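From the shared-data thread, chain only:
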Amino acid sequence: FLPCTPKGIIRLLRQTGKDLNGLNAVVVGRSQIVGLPAAHLLLNENCTVTVAHSRTRGLASLCRSADILVAAVGKPEFITRDFIKPGAIIIDVGINRTPDGLKGDVCFSEAIETASYITPVPGGVGPMTIAMLLENTCEAFLKQHRP
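Structure, as tokens:
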């Protein structure tokens, strides 16, 4: 079974209708749960993938080369307009509790002006994670009960 959040990321990307073959993807985050599995699944979609993190040198410049930017760094509004290539697809995995409420890893108000697609926080990747969990559960049931 595929990990739920990365599986949801791929499902969201496919729903854009864009051909993912050959696109440059940057995943900001190197966790075993989201960042690295997402990078692997993007490779399976024939993207050229770079895994970065909050301490990557020249991170803003690297992110500006991304056709697909997956933000899973765990820092509220860490990704600003300076990180975003015009027309990029942005998947914001972050869920950060702040005094002002829930915030993603991407500054949504800045990114919406530049990106072609962006997932909101809350309401973007989180519900997809739950949907993929349900899908995995159904697949597991069918594998156990099919002749």
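The two ends are 20 Å apart (CA to CA).
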